[in-house]
Design goal:
By secondary structure, the chain is mainly alpha-helical. The protein has 13 helices and 2 strands, in the order H-H-H-H-H-H-H-H-H-H-H-E-E-H-H. The protein has a two-stranded antiparallel ribbon. Helix 3 runs antiparallel to helix 11.
Amino acid sequence: MNGAVAAEHGRFGRNLAILKMRLRRRRVPQLEPSAYPRIRLVWAGAALLAMLVAISLVAGDAGAPRWAKSLSPFVEGLFRFVTDLGKSEWLLIPTGVFGLVLLFVADWRRIGRRMAAAWVEVGEIWGFFFFNLAGAGIVTDIFKWLFGRSRPIRFKEDGVLSFKPISFVYQQVSFPSGHATTVAAAFVACAYIFRGHPVVVALIGLLAGAVAVSRVAVGAHYPSDVLAGIFVGASFTVVYAYALGRSGVAFQRLADGTLMPKTVAIRHMTGAVGPKAMLAGLWRALGGGKRRKGY
């Protein structure tokens, strides 16, 4: 392992070599019999959501524009504020920049191995979150262009089932909802990352749900667009997380079929030296302060 890393020159080369080695790992335990019902439950949930999209297309979308117009100015203004929180750039830009800093700028030789291991785990989880949102967003954009569904602003002219395939015009890229995809992908990702912290997951879920509803309230999407966006975001996240779990990157798949976030080094370091010392270690890795061994 050390020879392979040494063959790469420069901070980016060393960090990339470590990442490649971790991605090539295979740590897939044999599934226990109890895991299969849980996996089938996930597939059942996906099928149910797909059915809801179809039902909404046929029977639920027509009343959405009328409901949106019936909202009071105060409620509409509140939804317009909430809906901006679902813009993907609010999440992609900071996570992307931080990931690039960890990969290109940080020199993990300036800190102890245990501290470096903790920050490697942070980087893997951070990278999962970024690429998950980016990948789910790309899939949704492709579907938008392929379907070319008219938005609610053209309800009077086109109705609810107007599709013009291969369309790139704003008024005709309604299905699925990009905001709903983003918040669904972010929520499911956080549910995996913060496993064992139900209060945190519940608060994130409430915010994600409010953003999803707001897309209908502001007249940007039909309910089926939102449900389809949730389907894409949630499905992409589950598949991507399990793919990483097979390599032991960011997650570890357990024998019962569930995923456990890989935070052993993080928990050890925060318990041993505290979050402030973790941040101080990052600062040293970025070139600030003196090089330090040990932690």
